[in-house]
Specification:
The structure holds two protein chains of two kinds. By secondary structure, chain A is of the alpha+beta class. Chain A has helices spanning 22-31, 42-47, 61-67, 69-72; strands at residues 18-19, 84-93, 102-115, 118-129, 134-144. A five-stranded antiparallel sheet of chain A has the order 1-3-4-5-2. The longest helix of chain A is centred in the N-terminal third of the chain and has 10 residues, at 22-31. Chain A starts with 17 loop residues before the first strand and ends with a strand. Chain B is of the alpha+beta class. Chain B has one domain (2-127): Roll (Thiol Ester Dehydrase, Chain A), CATH 3.10.129.10. Chain B is built from three helices and six strands. In chain B, strands 1, 2, 3, 4, 5 and 6 form a six-stranded antiparallel sheet that branches. The relative contact order of chain B is 0.23. The model of chain B has no long low-confidence stretch (mean pLDDT 95). Chain A binds chain B through residues 27-28, 30-34, 36, 38-39, 48, 50, 54, 56-58, 61-62, 65-66, 86-93, 96, 139, 141, and chain B through 8, 14, 17-18, 20-24, 47-49, 51-53, 55-56, 58-59, 64-66, 68-75, 121. Strand 2 of chain A pairs antiparallel with strand 2 (68-75) of chain B, so a sheet runs across the interface.
């Protein structure tokens, strides 16, 4: 799978705002067995200084994975999604995501390479509020497996 | 310093629930037919589910649900989840690598399933608790 290196540095238009719901945070926390009251009870979250329930650390992937389809499905880049393997994932937080946040994602292609017949793609998604305040930056590295 | 080990049991039901909560409906996480067709031994856990469980361990060690400043992993081996009541088990351990002057603790994390490491370069930075 050969990927075009001229895509390095390309930034895509911001995605439509994602409204973080209290019940979505509770559902996600429940699905991973995270029982800390701050994920479920707004009062417990307020006691820690947050305006509403706090999302677990990997919650932003719900938003960024949907947003990164902008890149993965960009016909000009031409990634074959059925050959994509998730390699690395990293989050750097300015603050935790909380219920009530309205978040937009800006995707950038940080690196593209081809080695041993496989394509490698590193994306960065900067997640910020609609007002432009940074919340979390999320990096993902994908391997696009070559034809056997 | 070693942090106390934490163990997480993972069953098929957990994968279905995570798929719904996260929106990741890739059939390799719920269909043996599809998983084996693409060369996997069977249904595997979402990498992001494993990362979420390890994230739980990290917030537990941190003593606060909002203390993680940075968290990254590399997915090296799939977590195969059999279709039975026991499922499988992921054991998570960690070692404190550094405590910085400005109150950040950097830890190196190990996640093992069936005797094999399923993550590499798993690292987190946490703020010291209040």
């Amino acid at each position: 799978m050969s990927l075009d290196p001229s895509f390095v540095g390309r930034t895509y238009p911001p995605t439509a705002p994602y409204q973080v719901g209290r019940e979505k945070i509770r559902e996600f926390a429940g699905a991973i067995g995270a029982t800390d009251p701050a994920h479920h009870d707004p009062e417990a979250a307020r006691a820690l200084g947050h305006s509403d329930v706090v999302a677990p650390p990997t919650f932003p992937v719900i938003i960024t994975m949907a947003a990164s389809s902008q890149i993965i499905e960009d016909p000009a880049l031409g990634v074959d999604y059925s050959r994509v393997v998730h390699g690395d994932q990293r989050f750097a937080y300015t603050r935790p995501v909380v219920a009530g946040d309205e978040l937009v994602c800006t995707n950038t292609i940080e690196d593209v390479s081809t080695r041993g017949g496989h394509g490698f793609l590193t994306t960065r998604t900067d997640v910020s509020t609609v007002g432009g305040d940074p919340v979390v930056s999320v990096w993902a590295k994908y391997v696009v497996r070559g034809e056997a | 310093m070693e942090l106390p080990a934490q163990t997480f049991r993972v069953t098929r039901a957990d994968l279905v629930r995570y798929a719904g909560a996260s929106g990741d409906f890739n059939p390799i996480h719920w269909s043996d037919r599809v998983a084996t067709k693409v060369g996997l031994p069977g249904v595997i856990a979402h990498g992001m589910f494993t990362m979420a469980l390890v994230g739980r361990a990290i917030t537990e060690w941190a003593g606060a649900p909002d203390a993680v400043v940075e968290y990254g992993v590399r997915f090296t081996r799939p977590v195969v989840v059999p279709d039975d009541d026991q499922g499988t088990e992921i054991e998570v351990t960690a070692r404190v690598r550094e405590v910085t002057e400005d109150g950040l603790t950097r830890i190196d994390v190990t996640a093992v399933c069936g005797g094999e490491k399923v993550l590499s370069q798993a690292r987190a930075t946490i703020r010291s608790t209040r």
